[in-house]
Amino acid sequence: MSVTRWTGLLFRVPIKFKLTLWSTVLIMVLLIGNYALQYLVMDKWIIHREKSGVQRTMNGILNDLLEREAAFTPDRIKEIKLYLEKANRDDQMIRIVGSDGVPLVTVANDVTENGIVPRFVSQQQIEFYRIDDNPVLIMRSPLTIFEFAGTVEIVKSLAAYEQLLHTIMQVMLAFAAGAVVFSVLVGWLIARKLLKPLQAMAQTIRDVNSKGIQERMIPAHNGDELSTLMILFNDMMDKVEESFWQQGRFVEDASHELRTPIAIIEGHLSLLHRWGKDDAEVLNNSLQASLQEFGRLKGLVTELLALTRAEKEAGDPDALLTRPDEAIRAMTERFMSLHPGFAVTFDLDELAGVELLVSAPHLEQLLHIILDNAVKYSSREKTIVVRAGQLERKAFIVVEDRGIGIPAGDLPYVTERFYRVDKARSRDLGGNGLGLAIAKRLVERYEGKLTIQSREHRGTAVTIYLLRSADGRRLGETLS
Ligand code: ADP
Fold first, then answer.
1. Region of residue 148 (left: phi > 0; alpha: psi -120 to 50; beta: else)
2. pTM value?
3. Collapsed DSSP state (helix, strand, coil) of residue 272
4. What is the position in ligand 1's atom list of the atom closest to the CA of 374?
5. Looking at 165, 187, 215, which one is the last position of a domain?
6. What is the CA radius of gyration of the chain?
7. pLDDT 10s digits, 291-300
8. Is there an atom of ligand 1 within 6 Å of 404 CB?
């Protein structure tokens, strides 16, 4: 198998295995590093200790022999041997070699002379040898007493120490193997525990796919990243579900609204089909009624389109309306010219030097919706006031009428799609219950807001708040 196939396989392995593998490798590397360091330190330390031990023994022997003025005559050799036996330690041999390289005295504790060649030296030296696979440390030092010249040799066997290191190494290896097994087990358990929430999340997503969008995750609420992710996912699903139902309701409402004019037109057409063709009056009445319903249909479709656009599209980022006071006045007058029975008063001076972050066509659409309502829902007192002002970073425009007002119970709902206080009356006046819904969404696109105050039989005031351009900044820049 090629390397790329191997790496490909490794990447496809479940995270559980990867986590276990990585944690085990990491623990192994740390353990091996630690043990190797310990081993080296121990090795160096023991050698150093042995060397200084041998050096101390050597110094002691040299001093004693000098003090005793030892002569290596046959009768004194025995005495020297006795002394050296006392001075000797375990696993050690002491040998005094003459200038001809022949050993004169040898004492040994668990060390054999075999293979250790006696040597005469003129300078102190320390060497490390391996004799018959046994490690030995040999120190040689020259000894001169009167006319005698020789060498003191101390041979220290390091076999015991090597055995100790060997045992330590075996113990370490056993521990390392145990630690690896333990780390695989613990790594596996931890990985399983950590990944359980992820598996639960994957299962919930599968359930959403198969059972529906009402499925939710069960977060642990312990504040960790996974539980935060689950809470965020649930919130998102709540919104998706809400918008899903809203969308469904919208389609139902829209179909319902479209059905009425279609049914009326259908009724008139079948009437004509049966009897009306030859009856001029029936023909005329039915055609007129049908045309009226077509007009209503057209209006409804136009409003539905406007609503979808207002919901989807963002506010024009380059929009900047200078002299809004003049623009509002002109727009209002243009609209009110179609309703000559109304008296309109303006108070827009506060907006004279202000720049508004809204496009002129959108502001006109907004005013159109609000003024249309003011006209439609006015009764005897046909007075409309259009005034404006500023509040912090926003400017506001208020359209007030003295009409029938909105009952307090209905007020919170009038900006919902298709909501009408008096359905029959609104329909007669050509309303579909979409105007304020469009207006609200349109204002929100420009980071503004729409509020309504109303008292039944007294009148209604609709206020739109829009951002003012601060230091020539545009919509996108003010959002951040
Ligand atoms: P419509 O097209 O039916 O007027 P809107 O969304 O514009 O729909 O308004 C929703 C409902 O709010 C209206 O049906 C009406 O009952 C009420 N409404 C809106 N504006 C006014 C107003 N100025 N005075 C009284 N009632 C109003």
1. beta
2. 0.60
3. helix
4. 23
5. 165
6. 52
7. 999 998 999 9
8. yes
- Asked if residue 78 belongs to a domain, the reply is yes
The helix, strand and coil proportions of the chain, stated in percent and rounded to the nearest 5, come to 55, 20, 25
Task: Give 201-238 pLDDT, tens digit per residue.
Answer: 999 999 999 998 899 998 888 888 888 999 999 999 99
Q: How many Å apart are CA 182 and CA 317, to the nearest integer?
A: 62
Domain count, the chain: 3
Check pocket membership of 373 for ligand 1, CB cut-off 6 A: yes
Range of the domain at 62: 7-165
Other C-beta atoms closer than 10 Å to the C-beta of 38 total 12
Question: Could you tell me if 402 and 377 are in contact, meaning their C-beta atoms sit under 8 angstroms apart?
Answer: no
Q: 243, 278, 310: which is the final residue of a domain?
A: 310
Are 29 and 158 members of one domain?
yes
Instruction: Show the low-confidence residues of the chain (pLDDT under 50).
Output: 479-480
Nearest to 126 by CA among 98, 152, 160: 152
Whether 435 is in the pocket of ligand 1, judged by its Cβ within 6 Å, is yes
Cβ-contact 415, 438 below 8 angstroms: no
Closest-CA residue to 120 (of 148, 92, 88) = 148
CB atoms within 10 A of CB 294: 14
One DSSP character per residue, 124-159 reads -EEEEEEETTEEEEEEEEEEEETTEEEEEEEEEE-H
Look at residues 125, 188, 190, 192 and name the one whose alpha carbon lies nearest to residue 155.
125
Please name which of 303, 297, 308, 374 lies closest in space to residue 342, comparing C-alpha atoms: 374
The backbone region for 272, taken as left when phi is positive above 0, alpha when psi lies in -120 to 50, beta otherwise, is alpha
**CB distance 434 to ligand 1 below 6 Å:** yes
Q: And the tokens for 462?
A: 């609709």
239 Cα to the center of ligand 1, angstroms:
28
> 379: which 2 tokens?
């009764």
- 92 Cβ below 6 A of ligand 1: no
What are φ and ψ of residue 7, in 5° steps?
-65, -40
Pocket test for ligand 1, best of 303, 368, 375, 377 (most atoms within 8 A of CB): 377
